[in-house]
Amino acid sequence: MGGMDVGGGIAGKLWNKFRSESVFVNYTPFFVCLAAGNLSADSFHHYVSQHVHLLNAFAHAYELAEECADDDEDKKAIRNLRKYVQAKLKSHDSLVREWGFGLPEERSLTNATVKYTDFLSATASGRIEGERFPGKLATPFEKTKVAAYTLGAIAPCMRLFAFINKEIQALLDPNDSTHIYKKWIDHYCSENFEAYAFRIEELLDTLSISLTGEELDVIEKLYHQSMRLEVDFFSSQPILQEAVVPLSRTLDPAVGGELSIFCDFDLTCTAFDSSAILAEIAIITRPKADPDGSETQLARMSSADLRSTWDALSAQYTEEFEQCVESITTTETAETFSYEGLCEALEQFAHFEKAANSRVVQSGVLKGLNQEDIKRAGQRLIFQDGCKGFIQKIMKNENLTAAIHVLSYCWCGDLIRSALSSAGDVKALNVHSNELSCEDSTTTGEIIKKLESPMEKLQAFNNILNNRDEDGQHLTVYIGGSVGDLLCLLEADIGIVMGSSPTLRRLGEQFGISFVPLFSGLVAKQREVVEVGSSYWKRLSGTLYTVSSWDEIHAFILGSSS
């Protein structure tokens, strides 16, 4: 998701803190269909009718905030914001006609709209959880606080709206006049609307200057709550046509619909590579002697020597990896997707990975690790933001038949299982990786090798698919971010590249692989759904989708995070 500079005050800080949640609005059926240009007119009319209620709630909130403001300039600024909304309400019918639509029938408020408007009204009236205002707002300072709180509750809506529409506008052809929602999108991307959003944020910064840390925390809570209500508002918009999001809803359990999710572990699920974690355990808990009492060369090594050995292994791995990449990418770039050429190139990586693992075993650095130490380290492993939450939601979703498989080069499956234990029932998580050989709960230094190459990962992937029930509708998603994931990413119905590994992208492009941001890929798929009439995914040869966060994957597969 692209950035947007909104200043360095509290408004900018809060937007930067919670901006990642915008994906849960962006990936709603409403916005994906709207961006594709095929949102049904009735769905749009329903949205417009609900939006009018929100505009009225904003106008009323501004009115109460103006009464609370102490400074004449602040009162005038709030009054101008209210006039902007009132002008929009007055010109609303003509704007809808200008956008090319008939006027919607008046409709009752949905639950999501009621919750949002009630929240705005309560905040502007001083009814804020955790805040105690005795009777009427007596002092000027109490009133000023409420004015700041009200602006804090309104600001995220306008910033979110401007941000998302700019994301959509970037996907449109400026010369395409056939997109029926282009005028609507352009309206919310206009300098006029951007200036309005900025004025709200600027005033919020001004009203917050004299607030205490606790009072700023109240604004943060209100800002975040408003963002969540905005997500719920757009998630609740009824969609009449088939939509490609959320993916879970395209699978019908009644006809055997099943989702198989595969993912890599190191640097896809985690923030750090597990090999470095295992080496650190070895260095910190280095053995004094073998179980039989005899000293070994490893036991005589100091922690400093052991670290030096590991550093040398790491440096050699990095150097040879870069050499391997260079030897492949100096060849001529394929004009079209070349699966055969990619497989030949990945054979070099297979030899490289196996040789590197053999050096680790020969060095003895993995000898003498206690299994309990490994499990404790796994429980403390730092995950990518949103990863564990996504896994938990998948495992607890009673309306979705899904299986999760972790395919990893990691040397120790126990480390992975321990790390994922807090996400749910470990037995429901299928871990496929190498293992460390143990005797009496202590590692021998040997690696039980199962997955050392892209080809072995692909074989494990295909074996899993071959063993599932052939009846029903099956869909596979693979999530990975390293060169070793490329074949599985390409084999899955939907291959999602996590992060921005320059090596993976460079190698992929060398053999004609296309990398498409997931959101723009979904918009293209939504256009296809309307034209072809089916939302079932078919693998696009040589095409992978890219995301920058697990929140995007969560929003795509499950929808709203609430």
TrEMBL record:
Residues 29-125, 149-236 form the Thiaminase-2/PQQC domain. InterPro entries: HAD-like_sf, HAD_sf, Haem_Oase-like_multi-hlx, Thiaminase-2/PQQC, Thiamine_Salvage_TenA. This is Thiaminase-2/PQQC domain-containing protein. It comes from the Eukaryota.
